[in-house]
Amino acid sequence: MSANQDSLMSARANLILATARPLAGAVLLGLTLSPALSISPAIAAPIVGVPAALPVNSQNTLLQPVAVFGRDTRRPVPQSLAPLAAKIGVLHDPRSHSVCTTFCVAPDIVATAAHCLYRTGDEPAVRLSDVTVRLHGARATSRVASRDTRAAAPNVLAGSTRLNVQPPIDAPRDWALVRLAQPLCKGRSLPLSRRSVADVMRLARAGRVYNIAYHRDLPKWQPMLARPCRMRRSFTDAAWSTIRKDFSDPDQLLLHTCDTGAASSGSPLLVDGPHGPEVVGINVGTYVQSKVIMLNGKVVHRFKSDDIANTGVNSLAFAAALDAFIGADMLAGRRDIRRLQEALAARALYEGPRDGRFSPALKTAIEIFERASGMPVTGLATRALLATLLGESQVVTGKVAKPRESAAAPLRR
Question: Is the pTM of this model over 0.70?
Answer without folding.
Answer: yes
